[in-house]
Amino acid sequence: MTIFQLILFISALVIFYIFFKKLFSEDYPKRGVDFEAKQADEQIGGISRPDKTFSKPTVRPSRLDELLSIADKSVEKGDLVEAKKALQSANILDKENPAIISRYAFVLNAMNDLVGAKEEYSRVLELEPNDDMAEASLGNILHKLGEDDEAISHHKRSIELDPEYAPHYYNYANTLYDLDRLDEALKLYEKAYSLDSDLKEAKDMISELKSKVA
């Protein structure tokens, strides 16, 4: 063996020694141990490998939120059948949610399903006895159904719950007007208008009734 061959042999031994030392040291990730981000949105790869990243997942709305959104958009478009379907599905997912039941009752009323709307608003009041809007809506529906004594009771209750809300007086006045109780209706229209001067309908009814009652 020449001196040159000996030098090459020794160099090869040194290279193999360094290689195996590195291989079995802790400088390399252990087999079976994945590289993981320390935070949910920490990037791995950076500029050199932007495709190798962890990122925060997009938060998807819940199925319930999706159904309510469909219902609202359907009502805006006038598609009451689609709104009804969406709210029925929402009601299955959350059976005792007054907000969902109120929307459902509103749609049934708009579809002229007065009996169904009556039942749903009654359900709302079982869950939320102090819901003045449900009281007023139920009063209007009961009047349409000819159940006027109960209608008046609910109108009075809506005013009791929120005496500063003009439409409650206006709704009650409409019921009394239809029952030909014009003096009482006039006072309620005047009360509604005093609370909200933008309520043009109340002003118009005041003008009409003053000529009749006088």
TrEMBL record:
InterPro entries: TPR-like_helical_dom_sf, TPR_rpt, Ycf3/AcsC/BcsC/TPR_MFPF. The keyword Membrane applies. Keywords: Membrane, Repeat, TPR repeat, Transferase, Transmembrane, Transmembrane helix. One of its GO terms (molecular function) is transferase activity. PROSITE patterns: TPR. Pfam families: TPR_12. The chain crosses the membrane at residues 6-24. Gene3D superfamilies: Tetratricopeptide repeat domain. PANTHER family: CELLULOSE SYNTHASE OPERON PROTEIN C, TPR REPEAT-CONTAINING PROTEIN MJ0263. This is O-linked GlcNAc transferase. The lineage of its organism: unclassified sequences, metagenomes, ecological metagenomes.
